[in-house]
Model the fold of this input.
Amino acid sequence: MTDKIKVGDYLIIQRQKYTKLQKFNNLNTTVNLGKDQIELRLAENHPYCTTFHLVPKQERGRRLYTLDALSTPSEIRNLKELLIKESGNDNRNIIDDRQSQALSTEEILKLREECESSSEVIGKLVENSKSFATKTEYSQEKYLKRKEKKYFEYITIRRPSIRLLTDIYWRLDPEKVLGVRFDTLSQIISYSGVCSVGNYLLYESGTNGLLPAAMLNSIGAETGGKLVHLHPGNVAQKQALFAMDYPTEQQARCVSVNIYSVLRHFYQDREGAKENEAQEPAVAEAKENETLEPVVAKTEDSTDGERAEEVNGTSKRKHEETQDGTAEEEPEAKQLKVDKQKQAWELENEAAASIMREKFDSLAIVAKEHPYSILKALLPFVKPSRPVVIFSTCREILTESYVDMKAEASVTYLRVTSNWMRQYQILPNRTHPDVTMSGSSGYLLTGYTIGN
Done:
């Protein structure tokens, strides 16, 4: 992991408060921010958190920009200090008749092409506005922020983090991360007790790799912690894991396997081991009996001799066929199947099963499905007195699981909780909660396993 931007990295493109995840595939990669198209070629080898100025390219019919790195972020101008000179007492005499702006749409588009910076465009809009000077200072600030958001010509490229990725996924579509908000994610990590040592078991059915990325982030690099990531599909969703760009040794300690495949592999191996243990005494007894059997007499009756000749004849024919190379094909085919290399998913199943034999220090389930059947299948692999965390967007599902777990008495100290986070705008003389905010971010069922 380097501190500089390079091809192949996942980048967080930030324009004011808006953030977007973008992979820097090659030097010709472009990112779309609204109607603006930005080339990332010149961002290579610049440090993360560098602020770039968007330089327009002269291409007809396209809002295409290249990047020019700023030496200091202070080069960005403060529009409030530049443009607000006088303000009104109130807005009672302002009428929204769409006639306050003297410039036409064509003239504004022409300004965007002629002016070198967004502050010049906004300055022209303010000069030609008939109502700007009569607005209150607060209304003027809101007007400038709205225009600055539209014409702002600076972006900052940041390294992906768990917080930024969670905010981006939540803003785009909460259902793609099963409704897990950042505060809920922090609660899952906290209740699970994930740290740099121990083995941890996670089942999730579609969060774009956000849950395993967060847990692996808590485990840390160059530690002894291991994570087994179970999923229901053929291929695990790992976008967030790839975006975090963990070191190779840290990524190797996260094993992603299909839940049905690894459970079948685990129990088949255990049954095979039991059969081998049961067969060992029988094999030893058979060998002992073979040594005690008398040698068969050479003198046999004629019928036995004929049978022996028939058997010898067939064996001779088989021997001749093997010399021609015809009868050896079947054993060779079997040998090829035995010697065939194991596929990647088989190796991952073996690695996960070896950790499952050691058992886990916590279990976390974030699932679209009803979690109780999954819990029953995975609970035997958790050590005694270890935390269990189940997330669901539906409280009734967790209530059912709560009652069943109480009846079985396999988990104690059961609690169903809900997170409710509210953000506040904190400004002089106008501190208040955000007008638009999300409500509940799902529910958590937590408890601790009981030792046998």
